[in-house]
Design goal:
Layout (H helix, E strand, L loop, with lengths): L1 E3 L4 H11 L2 H5 L7 E3 L7 H4 L12 E2 L2 H4 L4 E4 L5 H6 L7 E4 L9 H7 L18 H5 L4 E3 L3 H16 L2 E11 L14 H4 L4 E2 L8 H13 L4 E8 L6 E9 L3 H12 L5 E3 L17 E8 L4 E8 L3 H16 L15
Parallel strand pairs: 1-2, 1-4, 2-3, 4-5, 5-6, 7-9, 11-12
Antiparallel strand pairs: 7-10, 8-9, 10-13, 12-13
Helix pairs in contact: 1-12, 8-10
Bound molecules: NADPH dihydro-nicotinamide-adenine-dinucleotide phosphate and N-acetyl-L-glutamyl 5-phosphate (X2W).
NADPH dihydro-nicotinamide-adenine-dinucleotide phosphate binds next to helix 1 and helix 12.
């Protein structure tokens, strides 16, 4: 298999996880080309020194001729680049795309939130949502979710599916800076980010809003309205999403719904009553940690979700989907053990 975007954060995390995958040791998986754009020709070790076993691999340019020599290709590229490449790759090349190009099913929503031509939609890589795991088994094309939609959708899906909340939800989510990728951005320089927390994309304008709404509407079987506010925090990794919706059920009923929905899910960790997650406990792991309660006075369900944006929020989700696509055990190479402190 090949990784395009190998010099980026998501591509680097895919490589870190693949290096820990049993398939690499027993010969079921083989790491072929590692591709980049501006960094093509560089040693991977000079860009991602933590990927020690691959330090001397030289990054190749990203082109179709190289990628098509592989059975499976991970794309971890800026929006738009995946659709262009995918159009030229044969159906025999499985593609796991970390970008947004194939996530939205509605061309009108695509035009509104991303602009340009809608390239289509692929099976959506969030196996924990009802009905999706079966579509991912053996899939030749997979669209890995955005990081915020992973946290928010898993936090709210059981409640909207069971109809215990009104179909209008609110998501306020704090993200680490790696969520923005490696490219230099003026608002993401160290001195701008350190020691300060700020909201951005406020007022229903962040492009993950329609993705969260698409997921929740599908599981609810009725349109769900989403108010989403992202917040940037001075930490490298992690997302903490606080999700609320009007409810009339009590805390025991709400928690029973979540326990039922996620009983068999290897990567969803439902915390005990009155315990809420922290990003620090899921770093480097593929875990989604959920704290569920009801604010009875306000009549609100409150679910707090923590993920590592680069692991379950991107690369871990991508490897989980690869496992399903290739018929491996879904959990292979993925840990629920975090790195702390
Ligand atoms: N970071 C995150 O938490 C998440 C990211 N994603 C998605 O994953 C994808 C990658 O994100 P991320 O790793 O953060 O971004 P980065 O900016 O860190 O990395 C981008 C990568 O793409 C390469 N690249 C840039 N332009 C092109 C091009 N035109 N053709 C081929 N390769 C190109 C870069 O190569 P070079 O360095 O050589 O220029 C680099 O390897 C994006 O679609 C993003 O939305 C999804 C969920 C979460
Ligand atoms: C902190 C930060 O900037 N996060 C990114 C989301 C990263 C992600 O999941 O994005 P894609 O949909 O692009 O794959 C943002 O808000 O644009």
């Amino acid at each position: 298999m090949a990784v395009a975007g190998a010099s980026g954060y998501a591509g680097g995390e895919i490589l870190r996880l693949l290096l820990l995958h049993p398939g690499l040791r027993d010969g079921r998986l083989e790491l072929g080309s590692l591709c980049a754009a501006g960094n093509a020709g560089e040693r991977l070790g000079s860009i991602s020194p933590h990927l020690v076993p691959l330090a001397d691999r030289v990054l190749e340019p990203t082109d179709v001729a190289t990628l098509r020599q592989h059975d499976l290709v991970f794309l971890a590229l800026p929006h738009g680049a995946s659709a262009e490449l995918a159009a030229e790759l044969p159906p025999s090349t499985r593609i796991v795309d970390c970008g947004a190009d194939f996530r939205l099913t509605d061309p009108t929503a695509w035009a509104r939130w991303y602009g340009g031509v809608h390239a289509g939609s692929w099976p959506y890589g969030l196996p924990e949502l009802p009905g999706l795991r079966a579509r991912l088994r053996g899939a030749g094309r997979i669209a890995v979710p955005g990081c915020y939609p992973t946290a928010a959708s898993l936090a709210l899906a059981p409640a909207v599916a069971a109809g215990i909340v009104a179909p209008r939800v609110s998501v306020v989510a704090v993200s680490g800076t790696s969520g923005a990728g490696k490219a230099l951005k003026p608002n993401l320089l160290g001195s701008e980010v350190m020691g300060s927390v700020g909201a951005y994309g406020v007022g229903g304008v962040h492009r993950h809003t329609p993705e969260i709404a698409q997921n929740l509407s599908a599981v609810a079987g009725t349109p769900v309205t989403v108010s989403f506010t992202p917040i940037l925090a001075p930490m490298p990794r992690g997302i903490l999403a606080t999700c609320t919706a009007v409810t009339t059920v009590d805390v025991d009923e709400a928690r029973a719904v979540y326990a039922d929905a996620y009983r068999a899910e290897p990567f969803v960790h439902l915390l005990p009553a009155n315990v809420f997650p922290q990003t620090g406990s899921v770093l480097g792991s593929n875990t989604v940690s959920l704290g569920v309660t009801v604010d009875a006075d306000a009549g609100q369900l409150v679910v707090v979700a923590a993920i590592d944006n680069l692991t379950k929020g991107t690369a871990g989700g991508a490897v989980q989907c690869m496992n399903l696509a290739l018929g491996f055990d879904e959990t292979e190479g993925l840990s629920t053990v975090g790195v702390a402190p």
